Amino acid sequence: MAFGFDIDDFDRGNEARNAEDYVTAYEIFYDGCEQKDELSCEALGDMFINEEINDQMDGDLKKHSNIDLAVRYFMKSCDLGYQNACDDVINLKDDLNLTFDIDVYPQFELGNYKGLEAEKKSFEMTDDLLNEELEIMVRKHAKLEEVEDPAYKAQLDDTVDLAFEGFMDGVPFPGGKAESHLLKLGSKSFIDNFEEQLVGYTKGQEGEITVKFPEEYHAPELAGKPAQFKVKINAIKKLRQPELNDDFAKELGYASLDELKAKTKEETIKRENDRIENEYVSALLDKLMETTTIDVPVSMVQAEIQNRLKELEYQLSMQGFKMDDYLKMMGGNVETFAAQLAPAAEKKVKVDLILDRIAKENNFEATDAELNERLEEVAKMYGMDVPTLEEELKKNNNLDNFKASVKYDIVMKKAIDEVVKNAK
Prior knowledge:
This protein is an alpha+beta fold. It is 51% helix and 12% strand.
């Protein structure tokens, strides 16, 4: 989906179309297509094919046929990486009075994928590594506790509960005031040497500090200028780590420290062995690419890039970030970021094409039992049973696509296993 136009918008378009409210559906899909949403472009093409759009909705119908306009939007969807739209154009070729170029599924000769070699590392669990894992666990459960001694002086690495107000030429400036702000001294969260000037303050102490805003500060009216801050220490806090003992283990849900150690050891061994296996498989797939020459279609690379962008947008949304804001923070935009993703996307497409051919040559399929097992895993992950998961997917007309995707992943895993099995 395009950024700013999401699956909910697309579903609204489908609902309107199903209700034969074609004007609303057209407006939604047109907006989505303008925002480079490949599914909306394809939906517009489909609406033209089915004559659900009239010349009052789209003035281009006065100059072009439904077929011509359908092809226009199918091609746009295809260019955005949606293979189904590319197929739509091919299926319409006998009705067209125009010439066009379009990517087709690549034909290639599969190289020898048997006998590939790659280094596979080994892992040895040690007491030192176990102790490191336990230390990390202890640090993660450290808590800020207020220092009770009124004479205690704040030090670097302490956290202060700070009240402050900033002034420039004696006048308060916007965004420069807080009644209670947790600040770790030495973290460089505040400008200049603001934090260092608070070292030595005691609880309840008030004072004034002077700093200078950076020359490239984001607010031009403050950039490069000196400012004064009135400050007050509401409290001083230290990070206290729990003791590694039975009580700590029980807080985490274990019967004893020994059980915590045993479980941590088991999980560390599994994690490291999984990491080594993934690195080994990745190295074999790199070798696999060298065995086969493929001219990867641009549309397939674009589709993979779009999938990666969608995944990133979803992950950012779960953290409360917007895609555009994230890209600006990184100093780029969608186009520059997509260009950075292109090499990895092309590599992924090539590997998938080779694995798909291996799967076909070996007649690999996803059985009903394997599909159901995977559906149970996904349902459990979301706290559902399989029927509930399927109902949720049906609401968005995604059940068939989801099952197809799961089956594809199962088959690809079998192809990867075949490569690993035949490696030296």
